[in-house]
Amino acid sequence: MKILVCVKQVPDMESRFRPDAAGVWYAETDLAFRVNEYDEYAIEQAVLLKEQLGGEPEITLLSVGPDRVVEAIKKGLAMGADRAVHVRDPEAHLKDPFQIASIIAAYAKGEAFGLIFTGMQSLDRGSTQVGVAVAEALGYPCVTTVVAFEYADGTVTVKRELEGGVKGTVRLKAPALITCQLGLNQPRYPTLPNIMKAKKKEVSVIPVEQLLQQEARLVPAQFSAPAKKGGGVILEGEVADQVDRLIGILRDKTAVLR
């Protein structure tokens, strides 16, 4: 069995975002990037399954993006993946989820993967659409927001997170696609020996034009920071005093009370 793990490199959410020169997307200057958090759960689950099955499955990472995504690929290889595919696309951030899914599916169709793991969503876009769109394109059954995973004799048994803390149990036959949620596992830290081994693992580079011939479906019109607003007022003290202060503020600074 072969396993595919889809990995996205996203900006560190602690970074300060600002529009680029065209006001369309964030400027990458001085931004830090990292592996999408949910994709780390996907990598870890694939490696755990490989260990469970005695090292038999081959794990392939796939990442779509510019040259910088190689750093995300290296981390996944150091965590235990066997090989990687970099679909080189400098304008991946301008493509909609359907296009990204089409790229992944175009590659996966020729590989006959038994299982595909993706993150539930990406931290920068949060559409939750790529995984299910890949499954639809490939004709694979799909289970989303998975928080527990078991595999035996070609059958996948998972628990998925529903609303209000409720969990549902689903069983399905491979091939299948799983989107991974927070709490599924504890992603491992790459050790120094594994980091060194990762440098020798195969990373194939494919131009995006070989996999996708469509024009962009969604193009951001503008990206801008929220308008600055005045600070709030915290009322403290006895309740009666707070009420008096609130009435005074409403009367003097708004049109609510006259």
From TrEMBL:
Keywords, comma-separated and alphabetical: Electron transport, Transport
SUPFAM superfamilies named among the record's database cross-references: Adenine nucleotide alpha hydrolases-like
Gene3D superfamilies: HUPs
InterPro entries named in the record: ETF_a/b_N, ETF_b, ETF_beta_N, Rossmann-like_a/b/a_fold
Short name of one Pfam family: ETF
Record has Oxidoreductase as a keyword: no
Domain of life of the source: Bacteria
Electron transfer flavoprotein alpha/beta-subunit N-terminal domain location: 23-215
GO MF, one annotated term: electron transfer activity
Protein family per UniProt: Belongs to the ETF beta-subunit/FixA family.
UniProt-recorded name of the protein: Electron transfer flavoprotein subunit beta
Organism: Geomonas paludis
